[in-house]
Amino acid sequence: MRITKYVSIPVFALSFLFGLLAVYMFNQGETRKIYVYPTPENLKKIQYKDGTDTCFEFKQMEVACPANDTLMSKLPVQA
User: Fold this and answer.
1) Does residue 63 sit within a domain?
2) Is the pTM of this model over 0.70?
3) DSSP 13-33
4) Element (H, E) at 9
5) Which of 13, 28, 33, 71 would suit a FRET pair with 22, their CA atoms being 20 to 30 Å apart?
6) 76 inside domain
7) Is position 44 within any domain?
8) Bridge partners, 49 (sequence order)
9) By residue range, what is the domain housing residue 48?
């Protein structure tokens, strides 16, 4: 049983290309931003880009905590 008996190859190819073009044209503005925060597991695997399109990476460094709690600063979670 040949598939070309039931499906016209030129019509199929033209319809497929038209569908790809339609998806490309109608999905241009629907991108999502995915926020990824650095963790010890993904520190060396991901490059980050800031608002000025500058790429950077983080380096992990262990530091000693200050004895005085008032010297520690709290960083708010970024959304």
Assistant:
1) no
2) no
3) HHHHHHHHHHHHHHTTT----
4) helix 9-26
5) 33
6) no
7) yes
8) 55
9) 3-58
Q: How many domains does the chain have?
A: 1
Q: Could you report the per-residue pLDDT of 40-59, keeping only the tens digit for each? A: 888 888 888 888 888 989 88
Please state, as a whole number, how many other Cβ atoms lie within 10 Å of the Cβ of residue 38: 15
pLDDT 10s digits, 25-36 = 887 776 778 888
In a domain, 41, yes or no: yes
Reading the block at residue 52, the tokens are: 């000025």
29 vs 40: CA distance, rounded Å: 34
Helix (H) or strand (E) holding 56: strand 55-56
Burial classification of residue 27, based on how many CB atoms lie within 10 Å of its CB (0-12 exposed, 13-18 middle, 19 or more buried): exposed
H/E run at residue 49:
strand 48-49
